[in-house]
Amino acid sequence: xxxxxxxxxxxxxxxxxxxxxxxxxxxxxxxxxxxxxxxxxxxxxxxxxxxxxxxxxxxxxxxxxxxxxxxxxxxxxxxxxxxxxxxxxxxxxxxxxxxxxxxxxxxxxxxxxxxxxxxxxxxxxxxxxxxxxxxxxxxxxxxxxxxxxxxxxxxxxxxxxxxxxxxxxxxxxxxxxxxxxxxxxxxxxxxxxxxxxxxxxxxxxxxxxxxxxxxxxxxxxxxxxxxxxxxxxxxxxxxxxxxxxxxxxxxxxxxxxxxxxxxxxxx
Amino acid sequence: xxxxxxxxxxxxxxxxxxxxxxxxxxxxxxxxxxxxxxxxxxxxxxxxxxxxxxxxxxxxxxxxxxxxxxxxxxxxxxxxxxxxxxxxxxxxxxxxxxxxxxxxxxxxxxxxxxxxxxxxxxxxxxxxxxxxxxxxxxxxxxxxxxxxxxxxxxxxxxxxxxxxxxxxxxxxxxxxxxxxxxxxxxxxxxxxxxxxxxxxxxxxxxxxxxxxxxxxxxxxxxxxxxxxxxxxxxxxxxxxxxxxxx
Lengths: 267, 246
Prior knowledge:
The structure holds two protein chains of two kinds.
Chain A: H1 7-32, H2 38-56, H3 60-81, H4 86-107, H5 112-120, H6 128-147, H7 149-157, H8 159-164, H9 169-191, H10 196-209, H11 214-239, H12 243-266
Chain B: E1 8-19, E2 22-33, E3 37-42, H1 48-55, E4 63-68, E5 71-72, E6 82-85, H2 99-104, H3 119-131, H4 147-159, E7 165-169, H5 177-193, E8 197-201, H6 205-212, E9 218-220, E10 223-228
Parallel strand pairs in B: 3-8, 6-7, 7-8
Antiparallel strand pairs in B: 1-2, 1-4, 3-10, 4-5, 9-10
Helix pairs in contact in B: 3-4, 4-5
């Protein structure tokens, strides 16, 4: 296919396939722990790091990653304090992230165009260096989910039973949150901070709507995510559309199709 | 003749617990012996959940000592000896898990981290499902089952390790009366025929009275403890049958 002769598109598809794999792998556990806004929150804090990086001229995605890790630590700290109100930690950290980012934006008025790259994503400018970083993150996340699958399942399904059974619930939840920060940092370049949450939550929502068992759902969330990202990239390349918007709309379209399909099947 | 089957399973010595200045449990002394059936009743906020968490070592008392199978509960490592049945209400009906996956997850605390699931584990899960007559539901999603069926799934999960102590945390909340009655019958049958100790938190005083009598063994603040002692069931009556269905 002629399309693939372009190196820019090749790099975008490699990055997209990696993100399409890791976002739903972490996303399904995040959604089922009722922390759907976790990705969004980390992304908002991460964008504050990106803004600081642009202001002081240090690799923006690197600082964004450090801020994302900090957000993950802070969320877990607040979750421990407000044990029965997990969503409160999300609200507090998200507000803090937006507040810091807005101040940094006003301090660095000259870099608004650069900031937009991170807010809305620019997958067609992804560099080989960034692909290597995304690959490293992907290896860590795939290994974590593969090695700790049974612990992740039990903790997500029934945290009390996992704790009674002696599993290190807090440690595994913490690592899961840290890895969400990895996914966000990797995915910001693809869809941007404002839509990164979509890659984490919508494939999971579509997978859950299929009403299958856990392993099958995990498998289908990855397939749905990969399909939407690769198809979205190709459509946006061909028709000169925004890739992030195309990918997210495709994901929403798949989700709605599954929901309508099941509703029709029942009637 | 009574046989030596009455070792201490849980021992609470002068246990106190508070959240900040709010004293939840004060100077509680209580011993649960092997094969006892203990019913714990109390209103919301009385400290029932706190008590359960202390017994299984998830939280530590401010003062006093909690022993589980003769060891400090915080240091207790043989977690497969404990089975846990949650409230039905704790289940997210949309959770994408099949009955087989849920029952199998009972083995996950016994399996060391990084150890994979083997074929024999699947066979053990199959046996557990057959014991509770839910093998025909193996591939159904747990959220699609009735309340009674869901509780059988959780019992199968809890029993998969053949625990010595079974903890039931308000297992009949949100279940209709007829199913509640059948569930209690099943639990009673398990108590009478298996070498196990039961701690059951419940709001259902009637059901507790019918099996454990109307007089509580201990009244501690707002928590009532009803006990059917193991000496009321002779040790030689214990049948270690695999099938559990009543």
